[in-house]
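In response to reviewer comment 3 from the previous cycle, which asked for concrete evidence that the modeling workflow produces usable outputs, we include below a single protein chain processed end to end. The sequence was submitted unchanged, and the resulting structure tokens are shown without manual editing.
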Amino acid sequence: MKLWEGRFSKEVDKKTNDFNSSISFDCRMAADDITGSLAHVAMLTAQGIVSAADGAAITDGLTGILEDLQTGKLTIDPNAEDIHTFVEQTLTARIGDAGKRLHTGRSRNDQVALDVRLYLRHEVADLRAQLAELVGVLADKAEQYADTIMPGYTHMQRAQPITFGHHLLAYAEMLLRDIDRLDDVAKRLNVSPLGSGALAGTTYPLDREAVAKTLGMSGVSQNSLDGVSDRDFCVELAAALSLVMVHLSRFSEEIILWCSWEFRFIELDDAFSTGSSIMPQKKNPDIAELVRGKSGRVFGDLMTLLTALKGLPLAYNKDMQEDKEAIFDACDTVKMCLTAFTPMIDTMTVKPENMRKAAAGGFINATDCADYLVSKGLPFRDAYKATGSLVAECIRRGETLETLPLADYRAVCDLFDEDVYDAISLETCVSQRRVLGAPCPDNVRAQAKRVKTLV
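The workflow returned the following structure tokens.
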């Protein structure tokens, strides 16, 4: 039976019914639908809109349905139109006509808007916890490898020396911003639309604030049209999750590079790698590749939501049924990626000797060589040119700045002295970068501790 069948004289075509149905995906909101209904009926009873006896019967009936769903004693009927229909019809079947009073002063429009908010509130909390766990792992690793020198890159060319701990904390900072964005989403979605009705509120004396308080929500929507048609919070969450996936995808790209024989900076644990069906030597970073690939899926969910909403007049339109699959998929995908990604990072083996060897090549201490001349009084542009000449000479002769004889230094600029070799050592290059946010080991350790206090 449809909740709206009184207006119609014939059954809906089965294929049309299947097309219209949302039970296959909104069934996951069953607990939230019941939670919202319990708060609604408590308010209806308190306001004298339904009798105390009916209110008690409805409350007991809803509680029993929730318990039976949780234990598996009751299963959701896949032929129901949506989760709201299933719950209400099950309730009426169990307690009789009192169940028909549950929907008093309410529409499926404001009901589903509430259900989605309640469901996503849990999802945001779970996602936040997963991100915090990953940030904690990165902070621990950063402390462990605060002194591990590696080359920093620009344009995928070796640029300047940093430490592995410093590199990991860059991703921790990105993820901290992701957590902040989720916290912002949580604030805006934690508002109750219940009482907006189909679009114009209701003539019943509802206490909307009481329902919101019962549900632990911060307030109520202020416009009934907006209350039923607002899905900004879904878009905002999808956008925040898209940025999470951007960050995980960038990190995955580096993990994939670092695992390669060309880098060999890290090795992933066997539990987070796969092999080849034909090449027995292969150890593939499939988890990182999948995370990188699944980023596009979450971006697509965001685009689905934006496209579904962009042309909708007020208030509710059936197009809005498309919000749930998109935002549910975005949440599911990010949670699944984090479930695999965090232990992959936690268990990886770092190879400091390979990082140090890579840092020794590529003249990544050239800037420090120029800075050495600046400390002797030479203008930076002149120091830059002199150092460039030295690099060119090293390349021509197969030398490095560390191995080039002092006479060759002095042939370019007479300000060079024996202390240049200490100034351009990688350890000095890193340890002297003490400005806030720079990679000296003390900074890295301090920032790792700071990061841990923020999650």
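The chain is about 60% helix and 5% strand. We consider this sufficient to address the reviewer's concern, and the full set will be provided in the supplementary archive.
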